[in-house]
Each structure stands twice: as structure tokens, then as C-alpha cells.
Design goal:
The chain is an alpha+beta fold. Helix content is about 25%, strand content about 35%. The chain has eleven helices and 41 strands. The relative contact order is 0.08.
Length: about 775
């Protein structure tokens, strides 16, 4: 039996298989990289379908209405192949109900839009089929290619999946996967004898005397311990060990990265027995039975899939949580909504009580969240945990003193679905630490680090207030400019000088980037509002179009474990989208002043009226966001006052949070005279209509400027204020989470603050500077 799971990112580019020109070829990353062009008034909708796929979990569902000219073209832009070489373009497709005619084409990504390849119309039925065309490139296409599936049939509906464009003749996709599974699929091995200690990398690599359990054999009588592995990681189950041992695999020797132990209260547990529950090249799973020190039985299922650096752990009976042992100095709780929480074990992070496991270990709690990263020493590995539900807080165990202090383990509770995923991302330089001093401000620092692969890298800066500020690093383009890919859209371009303007920070040079060769640079900001000092952490948050399909980032792990839909929900993708309503006051000025300078006010009266309406819409929209932040601040002060009465022993902690919440009113008071009120702006607009709209005197421009300058003053101050309000709430959100680590009694209050802050931070106005 062969299980096809090729949609899980890595499979399309196994071993020596040719490179696939398509990014996200089977939609396992959602809509990323895909483009749909429509002719004239052609109607077509693109949706992800998770009910039926030729490969992986998702396919593209295209629904056409009315069609004009060449209809719809669905595909991707990419660099062109080389002249004289042979390539194959293949796609799985099927109709939803009635037969549909489609075509495959590759055209120049610029005029004259001539074709490199074309497969004329072919009729799809309701069964999946792989349509393909093999061709030789006969001329140069230096502008690149647009490769797509097209349809000109009105009211048609069809699905497409697993797009491939590669050098060489046609090889059926399933044949390719079958061949690769034979060499890199999941395997279960019997070590032949019980191992008293963790396996050295040399032993795991050599496998001397080991026996591979045949596919589909679930009753193999083990003489030794269980090892199951794919081409990325291995999991070792040793009798008597207190957890499963997780190794990363690569070109060098295997390296043990973590131990995954079941939790049952404060009891430790030893592995007593195991049995295979699934065994094929696509997926293998083993149920491991542990015995706690009090005799209680705990059972955990461990599952490993082909091509994935991820182990699924599932509580079967008795186990209430998972202890993930991976000693490190730094741990990161990625926050896709605001700024990360970075835990540095060498900080004064001490809980009042010692661990029940060991008197030498102290424990701290962090907010419940779906993701947690251990950044392992040496910068060559990250161990990541993922939970679908995060109802209970994360507990970390710390041991040692001063600079030698380490986070030994994190403890996570199984949610309602009883699943926790653990992933290992391993590569030289997959994360990096640079200490920033006060003297480094505004200096360009050439890091002793190069990005090991193309990705969207994130820099977590330590602020002087001991908070974290998260920035996505820029990537230098060939022309010297820069790009940035965010998890919520993009890309966004930046000029050669990296100049940027945001509310609160004003104008500055973007402080973190990688050049064309992947060399990393930092330039700590010089700003009164924000100063960096302490450790700066760099890690791969998300992929870009240049990221190889067999390379994983943090967001890839989230998608591959939770699925695209739940991933977008957990990351609150919809809540992250910036809103822009109306017309900004500077744009109003730049529209109206030239009209009056040219004496065109009567001819363009309709344009002026539309601009005034959009001005009012903009002012009210931004003011609404400001009022939401002000209301949040007042509600938070009321909530914190009530908590002080209920928990007088926490007064010091709560006052720290109150001082942050009060900053919103302080910011408003400083700008009250400038922002006026929406009613004041509405009255100004009425006055403009009465005195300036149709006025044609010599001083018409001067009269117009009097109003536009006043509106710009209002709008500019509103923009700054809404940015400042967001800034304050992000500070409050992060500080609440960090206070849990120093005092677990703050846990419930911190959870409430973080939940409320996420609600008010959703759907930011475009001028809030939600992302730097």
C-alpha cells in the first residue's frame, strides 16, 4: 500500500527530482503566489476547496459566470526556462459537474505575450486527470513566463491541483511520488537490543544490526527499541526512558534535539511498552505506554509523516500534558498580531515557588498560546510546539544561575483535541543572536550571520523598557531596492535608502535587512519613541516566493499541522487586515489646491464634492479608532481597579499596568487642541462649500489653502494619535504576558488583558502603523 501525501510541502522536490517552477503548487499554503487574470467583464471566483483534492488537502475551485474574450487565466509568474531546453507543464484538473474545456499555456510576461508552450482545449470530466504539455524553448523570454490554465466557457466550474513545471519529459506525478517514497518514506526500525542510554548520532546513522519492519506489519516482535524516521527527523522510543527522543537528520550526524515526555500531575514516567498502530511509507505511528512513579499508566501516540519535520503527539489515556525538554537560553512566543514575547533565561525571571519536580528548578508561567519556540544553543536548530487549542498556560522550567541559567523544558497541556505537535527546524544559522548596546544606535552592524535560505526573517529587538519590538527584515532586490513579505499580504517595496515613515516613529531608516547575498545587517533606530538595547533575535517567520518547497519556516509548520483554514483563524488573518476609508487629509490638500490654482473649481465641482465627502469619511473613521482605544483604556483602568480590590497583594503589578493604560489619555490630552472634533471638521466643510466651493476671486487659492492646511493639521494629529493608541495597547498586551512569568498569580488577569487587547487591535486603520 502506498499513501500519497505529496501536498505536504516537501514532497514535490524530493532528492534528485527536478525543481518545480511553481510555488505552493498544491495550495497547501492557501492562496499564496496565485494570480487570476480576467478579460473585460469576465466573472470568475477562486476559492480553496478542502473536500476534494488530487494531491494533499486542498485544491483550487474556479467558478465562472459571464465570459468575455480570452476568459480567465489562472496561474503564476516565474522566471523563464532556458532556450534549447525541454520542459513539462502538468496540472491535475476536473470538472465539478458538466464537462469543461480548458487549456494550458505559458506566455511571455510582457508584450507581445507570445507563447512558449500551449496545450489547446481539452475537455475535463468529473474525474481527476493530469493534463500536460512537453515543449522545447525556442527563443529567449528574458521578461519571464506566466504559466496558467485558462477557460473561456461561461458558467463553468472546475478544480485544479498540483501544478508542475519542470525541466525534462513528462513523468506522471504519482509515479514520481511512488519512486521517492521508496527511498525517503517513513520507516520503522528495530534496534535489535535495548539501549540503556540515548543513542549517539553515529549509532543512529549506522543502524548496524537493525531490522526494518516491513510495510503494513503492525505485530512485529521487537527485540530492541523502536526507531521511526523519515528523511528529516527520527524518533527513538527506549524502554525505561522517560520520554521519546527526537533527533534532527541532515548531511552530518543525527543530533538529539528534544525529549518528549508525558505529564500526569507532578509524576515522572518511564516507557514500559509500545505497539505499532500504522506503518507505511506515508505515515507511521506508535502507541507508547509509560508507567508513572505512582504506578499510574500513561499512553501517548506518536505519529510521523513523510517529508515533515514534525511529530504529532496525542494523549490516549492518563497523560494530561507534554513536557518538551530542549535546554536553551532563549524561547519565543511568536505573536502574529502584535509583538513577540521573548524569554531570556538569564533575565531576572523567577517564580516564587520551586518546581515540584526538583528543588533546584524554578518555574514560570507564560500566556496560553498556540506556538512556542525553543532556540537551541549554537543557532542551528529551533524546536517548536503547536497546539490547536490553548486553554491553559505554558509553564517553563529554569535551572542554573546568572549567565549559565537555562530554560530546561516547557510544559504544555493537551487541549480538547488531545494533540500537540513538535517540530524541529534545523539548518546552520537558522536563528541568530546579536547583543545591541547603547553605543550601537544608528550604526550599521554587519552581522556574523548570513541567511541560510531565502525566507521572511523576523528580528525581535529588545527595547530599553525590557519589551520586545518585532520587525520583518527587508530583502535587497537586484536593483538595490528592498522588499518585505508579511504574513498578511504583500510584497511591500522599499527604496534603496530604506527610508520609511510611520506614525509615532516618523521618518527613519528601516533597521534590519539582508542583502542580495543573504548577508544580515542591523541599524538600531535613533528615536525618542523607541530605543533598542539588549539581545536581538533573528529567525525565519514565513516563506517568500524564493523559499524552496522543501524548506520550512514557522508559518509553514503552523499550516502543515493545523491546516490552512484553522491556521488563518488562529493567526487572525482577517483581523490583521488594514482598513482605509475615505481620503487622507494630505491627499485632500493635494487634490484641491491644484484645482483652485488652475481656476478649475467650476468645471471640477463634482470632483471637489466627492473629495469633501471622502475627507469626512476619513476623519470619522480614524476618530472612531481613536475613540475605541480611549474606551479600551478607560475600561481597562476600571478592570484593573477592581482587580486591586480583589487582589491587594498584586497592587504593585497592577499599578504597573495602570500606568501604561493611562498613557492613552495622556496622548489624547497632548493633541486635543489639534484634532478638534468630527463635528468641527464637518462645520469647516460646510463653511468651505458656502465660501470657497464656487468662489473664483483672485484669492481663491489662498482661501482654499486656509481650509486644506487646517484639515491636514487635524488629520496629521489624528494619524499620530491613533498610532500612539495602538502603540500603548501593544505595550500593555506584552507587559501583561511577561508579568505572568515573574508572578504566576497574574495569570488570569494577564489572559483577560491579552484577550481584550486583541479585540480592540483588530482591523487597524491604514495610518496606525500596524506593521512597522
Amino acid at each position: 500500500m502506498v499513501v500519497f501525501v505529496a501536498g505536504l510541502l516537501a514532497i514535490p522536490v524530493f532528492g534528485a527530482q527536478p525543481k518545480n517552477f511553481f510555488a505552493n503548487p498544491s495550495f497547501e499554503l492557501g492562496r499564496d503566489s496565485w494570480q487570476m487574470d480576467k478579460a473585460g467583464k469576465t466573472e470568475c471566483q477562486f476559492a480553496l476547496d478542502d473536500k476534494d483534492a488530487a494531491d494533499g488537502r486542498y485544491s483550487a475551485l474556479l467558478t465562472l459566470g459571464a465570459v468575455e474574450e480570452w476568459g480567465v487565466q489562472f496561474g503564476q509568474n516565474m522566471p523563464a526556462g532556458e532556450q534549447g531546453k525541454t520542459y513539462t507543464f502538468a496540472v491535475f484538473a476536473r470538472s465539478v459537474s458538466e464537462p469543461v474545456e480548458v487549456a494550458l499555456q505559458i506566455e511571455r510576461h510582457a508584450q507581445p505575450y507570445d507563447r512558449a508552450a500551449a496545450l489547446e482545449k481539452i475537455k475535463l470530466t468529473s474525474a481527476w486527470q493530469e493534463i500536460h504539455v512537453t515543449f522545447t524553448v525556442k527563443k529567449d523570454f528574458h521578461q519571464g513566463w506566466f504559466a496558467y490554465i485558462s477557460c473561456t466557457q461561461p458558467r463553468a466550474q472546475f478544480k485544479a491541483d498540483m501544478f508542475r513545471l519542470y525541466e525534462g519529459d513528462y513523468v506522471p506525478h504519482k509515479q514520481m511520488v511512488r519512486e521517492e517514497l521508496a527511498t525517503v518514506g517513513v520507516r520503522i526500525l528495530d534496534t535489535g537490543k535495548l539501549q540503556a542510554k540515548s543513542l549517539p548520532g553515529e549509532v543512529l546513522k549506522a543502524k548496524t544490526g537493525w531490522v526494518e519492519v516491513p510495510e503494513d506489519n503492525l505485530t512485529h516482535p521487537f527485540k530492541g527499541d523502536v526507531v521511526f524516521m523519515n528523511d528529516r527527523i527520527a524518533l527513538v522510543l527506549r524502554k525505561g526512558a522517560n520520554g521519546a527522543e527526537l533527533y534532527s537528520l541532515g548531511n552530518d550526524l543525527p543530533v538529539m534535539r528534544s525529549r518528549l515526555a508525558p505529564l500526569a500531575g507532578t509524576q515522572g514516567a518511564a516507557l514500559a511498552s509500545y505497539k505499532i498502530t500504522e506503518n507505511n511509507p506515508g505515515v507511521a505511528s506508535v502507541e507508547a505506554a509509560f508507567t508513572a512513579t505512582d504506578g499510574k499508566a500513561l499512553t501517548v501516540r506518536y505519529e510521523l509523516r513523510v517529508g515533515q519535520p514534525v511529530v504529532l503527539t496525542e494523549a490516549r489515556s492518563g497523560a494530561t500534558g507534554l513536557r518538551m525538554e530542549a535546554p536553551c537560553r532563549f524561547a519565543v512566543m511568536p505573536d502574529f498580531f502584535a509583538d513577540d514575547i521573548v524569554v531570556d533565561a538569564t533575565d531576572a525571571l523567577v517564580a516564587p515557588a520551586s518546581s515540584p519536580v526538583s528543588p533546584s528548578v524554578v518555574q514560570a508561567e507564560l500566556p496560553s498560546d498556540n506556538f512556542f519556540l525553543h532556540l537551541l544553543p549554537g543557532g542551528d536548530a529551533i524546536v517548536m510546539t503547536v497546539l490547536k487549542t490553548s486553554e491553559e498556560d505554558i509553564r517553563i522550567n529554569l535551572a542554573g544561575e546568572g549567565e549559565q541559567r537555562m530554560i530546561g523544558a516547557s510544559e504544555l497541556r493537551y487541549g480538547k483535541d488531545a494533540k500537540i505537535w513538535v517540530a524541529v527546524l534545523a539548518a546552520p544559522g537558522i536563528w541568530h543572536h546579536q547583543n545591541i548596546s547603547r553605543e550601537d544606535t544608528n550604526k550599521i552592524i554587519r552581522l556574523d550571520w548570513k541567511a541560510p535560505f531565502p525566507a521572511q526573517w523576523r528580528t525581535d529587538w529588545r527595547r530599553v523598557e525590557n519589551l520586545t519590538d518585532s520587525w520583518e527584515m527587508l530583502t535587497e532586490k537586484r536593483d538595490g531596492g528592498f522588499m518585505r513579505y508579511g504574513p498578511y499580504g504583500g510584497p511591500e517595496t522599499f527604496p534603496v535608502d530604506r527610508k520609511r515613515w510611520t506614525t509615532v516613529l516618523g521618518s527613519f531608516k528601516y533597521p534590519c535587512w539582508v542583502d542580495k547575498e543573504g548577508q544580515g545587517y542591523l541599524q538600531p533606530l535613533r528615536s525618542e519613541a523607541l530605543r533598542f538595547q539588549g539581545p536581538a533575535i533573528i529567525y525565519p517567520i514565513n516563506r517568500t516566493p524564493a523559499t524552496a518547497l522543501d524548506t520550512f519556516t514557522i508559518v509553514d509548520i503552523v499550516r502543515n499541522t493545523l491546516g490552512v483554514g484553522p491556521c488563518e483563524y488562529v493567526l487572525d488573518v482577517e483581523g490583521q487586515r488594514s482598513q482605509y476609508q475615505g481620503r487622507a487629509t494630505c491627499s485632500v490638500r493635494d487634490t484641491l489646491n491644484p484645482i483652485y490654482a488652475k481656476q478649475q473649481q467650476k468645471q471640477r465641482r463634482a470632483d471637489i464634492e466627492r473629495t469633501l465627502v471622502e475627507l469626512m469619511t476619513f476623519v470619522r473613521h480614524i476618530r472612531g479608532r481613536i475613540e475605541n482605544y480611549v474606551s479600551f483604556g478607560h475600561e481597562m483602568l476600571t478592570y484593573l481597579a477592581a482587580q486591586k480590590q480583589a487582589h491587594p497583594d498584586l497592587s504593585g503589578r497592577l499599578e504597573e499596568l495602570e500606568n501604561i493604560a493611562r498613557l492613552i489619555d495622556t496622548k489624547v490630552a497632548a493633541r486635543r487642541d489639534h484634532i478638534k472634533t468630527p463635528d468641527h471638521v464637518a462645520a469647516m466643510i460646510t463653511d468651505f462649500r458656502q465660501t470657497v466651493l464656487d468662489y473664483e476671486g483672485d484669492d481663491a487659492l489662498a482661501k482654499c489653502k486656509k481650509f486644506t492646511e487646517a484639515w491636514v493639521d487635524v488629520g496629521g494629529n489624528q494619524d499620530e494619535l491613533v498610532g500612539e493608541g495602538r502603540w500603548v495597547i501593544k505595550m500593555l498586551r506584552q507587559r501583561a504576558g511577561l508579568l505572568m512569568a515573574t508572578d504566576p498569580r497574574m495569570a488570569e488577569i494577564a489572559r483577560e488583558i491579552r484577550q481584550r487587547s486583541q479585540v480592540v487591535l483588530r482591523n487597524p486603520a491604514g495610518h496606525e502603523g500596524a506593521r512597522h
